[in-house]
Amino acid sequence: MINVTDLRAGTTFKFEGAPFVVLKYEHVKMGRGSATIRVKIKNLETGTVLEHSFINSAKVEPISTLRKKLQYLYGDGTNYTFMDPISFDQVDLSRSVIADAINYIKEGESVNILFWDEKPLWVELPPKMEFKIKDTPPGIKGNSASNMYKDAVLENGISVRVPLFINIGDKIRVDTRSGEYVERVK
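The structure corresponding to this sequence follows.
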């Protein structure tokens, strides 16, 4: 058993009979009472995200998971095929496992996949990824001083709000957790 104070983002554990991963961890200490641990966790089987508070002395059961870096080959809409670049073994992931992460993965790109008892559970994307702007209205000179945004379509088909100075062909960095614009890539 591990203490909930040892939980951090990315830690996997078993809670109420299901495997979970910690997305966000917060230690809250108020006044003279005991501290509480507030976590945002994702159920690795169903994909539901929930927030839960534990008392400081609570314990959870750790699970043994394995992260493998696999290369994305192709997908047909329901199954997505990844390959281990060392052993060349191929793994098919269903749409329920890969969820919205497939929108950010390009063919030939490598991502971490979390396995539990040889069963793929979750695709772990890097927090920020680079994409090229495919379509956006032109920016007007002098509009870069204010905090205004316009719609843009990325090379992967996702729509994102970008500052007015971004043009077609520019490369930008996107936060894969929220789907928001982070910065322009030089």
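Residues 128-185 form a domain with the OB fold (Dihydrolipoamide Acetyltransferase, E2P) fold (CATH 2.40.50.140).
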